Amino acid sequence: MTVEALAGRAFGPAACPAAPGRVAGFVAATGDDAGRWSRFAPPGFAAVALFAVVPELLGDPAVAGSARSLLHAEQAFTWARPLAVGEELAVTGRVAGVRRRGELHLVFFETAAAGTAGLWMEGLSTFLVSAEAAAAASDEDEPPAEARARFAPASPIPLPAAGEALPVLHRSASRADLARYAAATGDHNPIHTDHAAARAAGLPGVIAHGLLLAAWLFQAAARLRPGPHPLQSARVRFRRPLRPGVAATITGRVAAAGESGAELHLNLETAGDPSPLATAELRVTP
User: Fold this and answer.
1) What is the total count of domains within the chain?
2) How large a percentage of the chain has pLDDT more than 70?
3) What is the CATH number of the domain that holds 31?
């Protein structure tokens, strides 16, 4: 079977319990506020739901057999309600489409997660699957396992007026953090934990998971809204990889605000680089 032949194929349903230990593990692995997320799961827990079903797609011979490089290019989520700790989710997925560009395939994967209270989350993932290495980066030494730069708490702040900037949020991940994130989510792509696998994909070394970067962006937005349902939607584009131990900052502004919520534009950046690592458009709840 070819990658193109996967279009329209359904996956799941897969069980994804939002068990207390599982939510706590995700909160710890992403550096989120354990006090805030004790009774409800944070928005970024959508990554756990996604990886309840997407490994079946990524492990399919049509994908795994042709993927020297497998990268997460873009991710969109919408959240319909809060997710209570202890709720059992059923997750389904579907290949919404496949586009081929030479040796590169863009695979669009739809996800939905529902529980006893109804639909919680819907997602659309864009994966880049290539028989060729993604790049030809020079080899870099890996930092010590626990080495990371400044990581500040995402403390609650008032929502600025439209057009105003958000306070900067500092983020970084160590190699040990990446291993903890992989364990918490089930995202075991070896480019995040194995130097040889990352080099074979054309990377300088292991890189942070795209959805870990997304979780940080969600934290930057969620600090603007109290309660268990701070975000309505988010769209994140992963533009460049983040190496472990490197300092990153989240900056952004309020693009618009009204009775239905506020729209935010956020960037995840590293010092001295002209382009961001990731960009996000998010809508917070009223």
Assistant:
1) 1
2) 98
3) 3.10.129.10
